[in-house]
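Board notes, transcribed. Complex of a protein with zinc ion.
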Amino acid sequence: MSIEKLKKIIGQNDNIVFFGGAGVSTESNIPDFRSENGLYESIKNVRYAPETMLSHSFFMSHTEEFYDFYKNKMIYKEALPNAAHIALAELEGLGKVKAVITQNIDGLHQMAGSKKVLELHGSIKRNYCMDCGKSFDLDYVVDSKAIVPVCDRCGGLIKPDVVLYEEPLDMDVINMAVNYISEADVMIVGGTSLVVYPAANLVNYYRGNKLILINKSSTPFDSRANLVINDSIGKVLKGVL
Ligand SMILES: [Zn+2]
């Protein structure tokens, strides 16, 4: 019933923005950073908290420990797009979805074929030399013999283009996301409980009357939504197509 309603809304509108959280990636078997069975639980006995290990100051002061953690816990190189990624790419191809805004850093939307992807927290797929700016792909970082990858041009330290704790979000990306959201006729929010900044804040820019929340559990925005579907994001979006 809810999927029928969603199907109708998508059928009637061509200016749809999708905003997704960790739940979109968990269906590709990438653990959610904060969920009960996620990364937090698996590493709670280590010396540092994940927020510490993923902070800018830790990256600068404990680079080897950072990369050891990052390569083992943040990179899922074999992960593939799931039904949600594929459906969103198809909906973009049909002229329905104008932009995908994501909090995930795995690059799976692009792998599925989405063109307009706004990555609020950056991407593991992009890496750059902090000294000369040269770009490197994920393979270069993963295949580097040393734990800490260094630039093959100048020997400088390579940093992932991922927003670490203590680092600001990219204002250009935020502004583009706000533009898409404030102009959208339909906003579909999926796989996020909408409790963490900037997720909750971005939804406030939506001005339309077709806010759709697809999440396995309830969110603080349920009462403001026009349609709430508590189910798997992949299953729901696949059902729409
Ligand atoms: Zn360099």
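The longest strand covers residues 122-129. The pocket of zinc ion is lined by residues 129, 131-132, 134, 151, 153-154, 156 (CB under 6 Å).
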